[in-house]
């Protein structure tokens, strides 16, 4: 008796008719309009920023850009792609019907690739949104370069006061202090320096820096090494400089070493020389960067 295997039952094997990609012109128009809105709004955000900026307008345009992109992707996924759930059933590998079913499924899922216009609009929408997201990068401003490592003090520049007038030795009595700047740059924030007069015999400077304090006149950076505040208080009796922000205290006689507070680095000393006419000139810039210690941190540290 000839026994032959009955053909597989489609209801058992999971075979289903070929699913076509949904054709919904209205949905395509919604997706296209959403992506165009994202492009226009994204570029508009950048334009408003470059024109001077207006926070409320920029926020509204960014909302439209993100909202348009979200609506477009959502409508595309729900109305332009096949949404039928596919269940892969166990079957014989040699079953030609299973192969045809797999081919039909793959063909249906290729629908997104046939909508070239929508793909291009999606790329444009992402580009428009990228234009809006460029604003934080543009807001960073120019890089500081080595501005945090040097000041405007140069060899031969005279010390002047806030008005630009040269400072003379006779302007300071013992225990006196005066804020000075490099000639030509009065008011320079990172160049501001405290010129202090003490009794020469009291100074305990390193040998290589003793000559930087002629006749007891010593100059230290006024920028605190903790947070960059101006060190504006001087207790002459204790020879202490005090930062009013966080109470960091520096010993003037011992190279402005910190004795109290959060500052961990001494105030840099400016090398100066006393001229025959009684004025002071710099012998160069500060040997170390002025200001907070983190300004001087490098990638290797």
Topology:
Blueprint: H1 10-13, H2 25-50, H3 55-79, H4 96-109, H5 111-114, H6 116-133, H7 135-138, E1 159-160, E2 177-182, E3 193-197, E4 217-221, E5 233-235, E6 240-242, E7 249-251, E8 257-260, E9 272-274, E10 280-282
Antiparallel strand pairs: 1-2, 2-3, 3-4, 5-6, 6-7, 7-8, 9-10
Care to describe what's here?
The protein contains seven helices and ten strands. With 301 residues, the protein is an alpha+beta fold. It folds into two domains: 10-138; 159-296, Rieske [2Fe-2S] iron-sulphur domain (Rieske Iron-sulfur Protein, 3-layer Sandwich). A four-stranded antiparallel sheet has the order 1-2-3-4, with no helix packed on it. Strands 5-6-7-8 form a four-stranded antiparallel sheet, with no helix packed on it.
* Percentage of residues in helical conformation: 25-40%
Radius of gyration: 38 Å
Strand content: 5-15%
Shape: elongated
CATH class of the largest domain: Mainly Beta
Q: What would the keywords be for this entry?
A:
single chain; disordered N terminus; four-stranded antiparallel sheet; 10 strands; alpha+beta; Rieske Iron-sulfur Protein; 2 domains; 301 residues
Q: How would you concisely characterize the structure shown here?
A:
This protein is an alpha+beta fold.
């Amino acid at each position: 008796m000839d026994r032959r295997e009955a053909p597989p039952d489609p209801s058992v094997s999971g075979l289903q008719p070929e699913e076509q990609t949904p054709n919904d012109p209205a949905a395509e128009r919604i997706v296209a309009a959403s992506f165009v809105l994202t492009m226009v709004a994204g570029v508009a955000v950048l334009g408003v920023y470059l024109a001077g900026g207006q926070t409320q307008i920029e926020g509204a345009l960014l909302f439209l850009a993100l909202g348009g992109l979200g609506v477009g992707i959502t409508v595309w996924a729900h109305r332009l792609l096949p949404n039928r759930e596919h269940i892969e059933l166990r079957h014989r590998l040699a079953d030609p019907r299973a192969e045809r079913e797999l081919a039909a499924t793959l063909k249906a899922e290729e629908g997104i690739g046939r909508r070239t216009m929508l793909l291009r609009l999606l790329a444009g929408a992402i580009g428009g949104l990228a234009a809006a997201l460029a604003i934080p990068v543009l807001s960073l401003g120019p890089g500081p370069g080595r501005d945090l490592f040097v000041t405007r003090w140069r060899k031969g520049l005279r010390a002047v006061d806030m008005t630009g007038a040269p400072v003379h030795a006779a302007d300071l009595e013992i225990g006196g202090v005066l804020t000075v700047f490099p000639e030509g740059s009065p008011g320079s924030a990172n160049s501001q320096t405290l010129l202090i007069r003490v009794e020469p015999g009291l100074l305990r400077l390193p040998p290589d820096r003793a000559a930087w304090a002629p006749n007891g006149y010593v100059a230290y950076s006024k920028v605190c090494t903790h947070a960059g505040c101006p060190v504006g208080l001087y207790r002459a009796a204790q020879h202490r400089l005090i930062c009013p922000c966080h109470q960091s205290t520096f010993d003037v006689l011992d190279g402005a070493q910190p004795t109290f507070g959060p500052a961990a680095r001494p105030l840099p000393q400016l090398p100066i020389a006393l001229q025959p006419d009684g004025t002071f000139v710099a012998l160069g810039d500060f040997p170390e960067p002025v200001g907070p210690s983190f300004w001087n941190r490098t990638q290797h540290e």
